[in-house]
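Moderator note: this is an archived Q&A kept for reference. The question asked for a predicted structure of one protein chain; the sequence and the answer are reproduced below.
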Amino acid sequence: MKVKTILVSQPEPKVENSPYFDLIDRQKVKIDFRPFIHVEGVSSKDVRGQKIDLTKYTAIILTSRNAVDHFFRIAEELRFKVPDTMKYFCQSEAVAYYLQKYVVYRKRKIYVGKSTFTELSPLIKKYKNEAFLLPSSDKLKPEAPMVLNDLGVNWKQATFYRTVISDLSDLRDVYYDILVFFSPSGIKSLLENFPDFEQNETRIAVFGNTTIKAATESGLRVDIKAPTPETPSMTMALEKYIKEVNGKK
């Protein structure tokens, strides 16, 4: 069956040069964007309940923009003035760049990894005498605790925000040729919103091994997988599939 409509379970890209928009132009398909999950901050009372005292930490490990937002939100709610001496360890350049929303970049001690948490570990190891706080969601990937425990540093994880399933009830009678997922939480959201979901001719596209595992364990047929050596991005995987079933353009 040809592909005409695609639903991506993420917010619409804010940049004009997104590869999704290029895909729409080249393949003449309709792509809608809808987050299947969203983030909600926990209260400062909940953070205190986790026995977190922000004055005890000399370094913050930031793995995402959400972590940045919610760390500074909690600090403000607790009336904690973040000291100029605080060290920030950012998992990627994008996170470090986003940190400028809250701190004067050139005046702070900011250390930046390449992409994965493991790639950040040599920088953390250099400062292993610091007291590290890892503000995160309730869905922390196992890589971070493993790396930090292996380094033997003084660290603590705290849940500053939660991943929550979005209400998709308005999509009940809307059908797409392809549904695109990037996390096990997205798969969970689909099945909790639509417990009677039948895949039939709907194609499922997934990004990452954990998402593939979640989809197959939920009884879904995975038709499009990324990343692969041939298609390292989701848009490339989608375009390859569309060309195969629609005819090359």
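Archived answer notes: The radius of gyration is 21 Å.
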